[in-house]
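Example 9 (inverse folding). The structure is encoded as follows.
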């Protein structure tokens, strides 16, 4: 279900309020939500950028919580639990741009030719190795389908070309991607 501009803005405000409350040592008071789209149980990723540079990104593919609660949780995780970055500090909050990717369910593919760059994100699994890249990553870097697959292999801790192995499972998903900049909130 596509989100309206109002619903996207609500999610962005929830993400920022979640981080701000944590930085101030307060509990987040979530707004009352009646939108069926925001009540839907969907996976989401929250990405933080500081001056155009990645500052944190955490998400999940499935959730037992409504989308708005998942976004609040993932915003906290991106700000404070991304192992690639130190936890966000209060002085940085005004410099952060928040982007949300509301996901569709994962779907297996039978051929890599089904992957549409710019539409699909990729989730690769091979034994204990797992890696994911969101749909916008390929377009941001100008990658073709095969570079996108190789980069997802690298993200999973495997060699480029791992996607050719019959033991490698490839799943795709789509995402509705929006941020504070695109919605005119910054």
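The amino acid assigned to each position is listed next.
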């Amino acid at each position: 279900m596509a989100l309206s501009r109002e619903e996207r803005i609500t999610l962005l405000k929830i993400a920022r309020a979640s981080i701000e409350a944590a930085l101030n040592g307060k509990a987040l008071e979530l707004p009352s939500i009646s939108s069926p789209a925001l009540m839907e149980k969907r996976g989401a990723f929250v990405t933080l950028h500081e001056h155009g540079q990645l500052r944190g990104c955490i998400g999940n593919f499935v959730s037992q919580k409504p989308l708005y609660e998942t976004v609040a949780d993932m915003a906290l995780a991106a700000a404070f639990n991304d192992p690639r970055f130190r936890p966000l500090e209060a002085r940085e909050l005004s410099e952060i741009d928040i982007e949300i990717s509301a996901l569709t369910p994962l779907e297996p593919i039978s051929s890599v030719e089904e992957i549409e760059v710019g539409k699909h994100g990729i989730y690769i699994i091979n034994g204990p190795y797992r890696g994911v890249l969101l749909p916008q990553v390929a377009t941001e870097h100008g990658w073709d389908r095969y570079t996108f697959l190789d980069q997802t292999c690298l993200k999973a801790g495997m060699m480029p070309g791992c996607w050719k192995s019959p033991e490698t499972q490839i799943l795709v998903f789509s995402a509705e991607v929006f941020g504070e900049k695109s919605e005119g909130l910054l």
